[in-house]
Amino acid sequence: MIKSNTYSAEYIATLMGRASDAIERATQKTINTADQTTLTVNEKAQTANQEAIELSRAFNEAFRQTMQNIQSTAEEFERTDQQLEHMYNNEFSYKIV
């Protein structure tokens, strides 16, 4: 019988959560901009920085959803394992009697 391991899934989800927290902290940091210059390069850099932040936030949101999916899948596997174990134990006990 295949037995799921919710502890491994929880450990991985914990590590993913820490990574997600680090991404969130990084996107919350203030970027100092040179607002007094009219250089086109500066404007493009500011736009690129803002786009990178928005992309990081979108990635982090998807990453968090993936974490939740992993956790719920692990819980579902655990529930199924318990049901199968119960079913096999009951079936085995009927054959012995």
Describe this protein's structure.
The protein has 97 residues and is an all-alpha fold. The protein has one domain (6-96). It is built from 2 helices and no strands. Helix 1 (6-28) runs antiparallel to helix 2. It starts with 5 loop residues before the first helix and ends with a helix. The model has no long low-confidence stretch (mean pLDDT 83).
Helix residue percentage: over 70%
Largest sheet: none
User: What is the percentage of strand-forming residues?
Assistant: under 5%
Radius of gyration: 24 Å
Please report the number of helical segments.
2
Number of separate domains: 1
SSE-based structural type:
mainly alpha
Terminal CA distance: 23 Å
Tell the overall outline: rod-shaped
Order of helices and strands: HH
Number of strands: 0
Poorly predicted sequence stretches spanning 5 or more consecutive residues? none
Mean pLDDT across residues: 83
Q: What is the topology?
A:
Blueprint: H1 6-28, H2 40-96
Describe the structure concisely:
The protein has 97 residues and is mainly alpha-helical.
List keywords for this structure.
97 residues, mainly alpha, 0% strand, 2 helices
